[in-house]
Amino acid sequence: MTDIEPMARHYFIRLSLQYYVAGRFAALNRLHSVTPTLLHHAVELILKAALARTHSLAELKQQHGHGLSSLWQAVVQKKSALKTPSRDATIADLDKFEDLRYPDKRISQGASVSIGIRSGENPVSSGSHPSSGPSYRFNLGDIDELWAAVFESIPANPSAFLQGLSEDAHKALVAENQHPIARHLP
Q1: Which of 82, 103, 121, 144 could lock onto 116 through a cystine, CB 3.0 to 4.6 A?
Q2: Is residue 47 a contact partner of residue 71, using CB atoms and an 8 Å limit?
């Protein structure tokens, strides 16, 4: 463990929670253009928090960058109980959205983005629907399940991170959320 590890882990958790709340708000309000990027950041940062005990900040940046698949593999190597086919699929689906960070593909090829709120629900589409353009999809409920599982695997006090959230942030966090993190709200 490095001297900076507890501070880095705390920072990653806090920042991840803020991206997660913003991403949930965006998804619930059908802001399909920004939702995937916000949730990608939320998952990326919670995975980095899970690795902060065993990886320096430089290692996280150099070895993994923004790659969810790479970060996920490193996390499940240390915490094998987190690995499930459903979570693997959620990581793979969300990692594809990294392509949309810059608009070049969306402009040249078009794309459709589909977001479902509950696991197993047919996602609602947004954007152009070209026959040859890429299609991106995920369910918020799957992200909720993954984020909560990783968060709970990190030695951290949920209340310490959840207190101080505004009433509106609390609402965005719990709306349609069937996963454990929502239980820790005051």
Answers
A1: 121
A2: yes
φ, ψ for residue 111, nearest 5 deg: -170, 155
Taking Cα atoms as reference points, which of 137, 186, 161, 145 lies closest to residue 27? 137
Residue 116, strand partner residues: 139
Q: What is the pLDDT of residues 12-58, one digit of tens each?
A: 999 999 999 999 999 999 888 889 899 999 999 999 998 888 777 67
Domain ranges, ordered by start, for the chain: 5-103+143-184
CA distances from residue 156 to 37, 62, 124, 150, 159 in whole angstroms, order as listed: 25, 26, 35, 11, 9
